[in-house]
Design brief:
single chain, alpha+beta, conserved putative lor/sdh protein from methanococcus maripaludis s2 fold, Elongation Factor Tu (Ef-tu), domain 3, OB fold (Dihydrolipoamide Acetyltransferase, E2P), 4 domains, six-stranded antiparallel barrel, about 35% strand
């Protein structure tokens, strides 16, 4: 009995299994390659496009200055007996600062006061004594004239009747003429003693002159006491007790209280960004952690040709107590503000002065993207066109990353 022929099924099944295995292996290999691709991309610390408030500012160094300084000196020559304030002292208007020797000036004032009293007494005498005496003298002279007139008439009658000689008539006429002259003189004296008369005017002129002399003596005495003309702070003191001073010599310098100013020189290329009323944030170099507000109040119409700069001044409505004259400050003048600006760090923008562009990471590849810039703030710049919020950019200092390179973004 013949044995059965061998089956061909097992070899066919094995062949199919082998092909399926090869396909599976290939698929796994391809998947492994795809999964491994990001591992071969260059890791790069990227910057993210953000949206938020952006302030554009001009940063400059300046100085603290009050609107003006007052230099005090003496109006008379003299010797200093007291100096009553020190540098840095707060001063009030009228406060005594320097005292000069005033002994001679006190004596001159007393003499002027005595001369005024004498002149006023003379004026009072004109009204209270001289006028009544002049009126009484006038009445007496008029009475004498009446008597002389009567005597002359009697004498003339007696001469006509032959009882008196012509000489006696001449004597009576002379007596009458004298009486008339005395009346005229007495009346003139009354007129001069009356209010508004010459004697009264002369007496008043003497009083006025004496008062002027007294005022001059008082003024010269006041010059011996040098006082603060305004409220302020004493900046410099250049005099000590015992010093001899002369008119015109600066003895003290005062910074008056008032609105504090900041003065700075700004590069003329920033002139187009400036406008009166712009706010500023300020910090003193001595107190960098403390900031206070200011406002642009003056832009000079003149450009400094040597430095290529323009002087600006800022007023400080509420100056902090630690500010000092000539203190150095850092000033950030806010020239523009955008509440919702699409912005990126300045270091991500390339060729910012020409045709700006950035490297943006899209689908794991660095791609060149042209952008249009807007405001420029503190280390950040506004993007008007070309990007969207949330996109990631390769900083310009990453020179090894070029357009088309595969990159793997890494948080900074």
């Amino acid at each position: 009995m013949a044995s059965p022929a061998p089956s061909s099924a097992p070899p066919a099944r094995n062949s199919r299994l082998m092909r399926a295995g090869l396909v599976l292996i290939a698929a796994l290999a391809l998947l492994a390659v795809l999964l491994a691709l990001p591992l071969f991309a260059e890791p790069v610390v990227v910057a993210t496009v953000e949206e938020g408030e952006l302030l554009q500012s001009v940063v400059v160094s300046g100085k603290v200055r009050t609107p003006r300084r007052l230099e005090l000196g003496s109006q008379i020559a003299g010797q200093v007996t007291q100096v009553l304030a020190r540098e840095g002292d707060a001063l009030t208007r009228g406060q005594a600062l320097i005292q000069l020797d005033d002994e001679e000036l006190q004596a001159a004032l007393a003499q002027a006061a005595a001369s005024l009293a004498q002149s006023e007494a003379r004026l009072a005498q004109v009204g209270q004594l001289a006028l009544p005496l002049a009126r009484e003298s006038a009445r007496q002279a008029e009475a004498n004239l009446v008597q002389a007139q009567k005597q002359f008439e009697r004498t003339r009658e007696l001469v006509a009747r032959g009882f008196y000689s012509q000489n006696q008539l001449d004597e009576a006429r002379r007596s009458l003429d004298v009486a008339r002259s005395q009346v005229q003189a007495a009346r003139l004296q009354v007129d001069s003693s009356e209010p508004g008369g010459s004697d009264e005017r002369l007496a008043r002129l003497a009083v006025d002159q004496a008062r002027a002399s007294l005022a001059l003596a008082q003024a010269r005495l006041a010059y011996a006491r040098i006082a603060a003309p305004v409220d302020g702070v004493l900046l410099t003191r250049g005099v000590e007790p015992g010093d001899a001073v002369q008119p015109g010599k600066v003895l003290m310098t005062i910074s008056p209280l008032g609105e504090t100013e900041l003065v700075a020189q700004i590069d003329e290329k920033n002139l187009e960004l400036l406008a009166l009323g712009q706010p500023a944030r300020v910090s003193a170099d001595a107190f960098p952690a403390r900031r206070f507000g200011a406002e642009l109040s003056f832009i000079s119409p003149v450009i400094d040709a040597l430095r290529g700069s323009v002087e600006v001044r800022l007023r400080v409505p509420e100056p902090p107590a630690y500010l000092r004259e000539d203190m150095t400050v850092s000033i950030d003048i806010v020239t523009a503000r955008r509440a919702r600006a699409l912005q990126v760090p300045v270091e991500t923008v390339r060729d910012a002065g020409g045709e700006p562009w950035v490297l943006v990471v899209r689908d794991g590849v660095a791609q060149r993207q042209s952008v249009r810039l807007g405001l420029r703030g503190d280390g950040r710049v506004e993007i008007l066109e070309g990007l969207a919020a949330g996109e990631q950019l390769v900083p310009a200092h990453q020179e090894a990353i070029s357009e088309g390179a595969r990159v793997r973004p890494v948080a900074g």
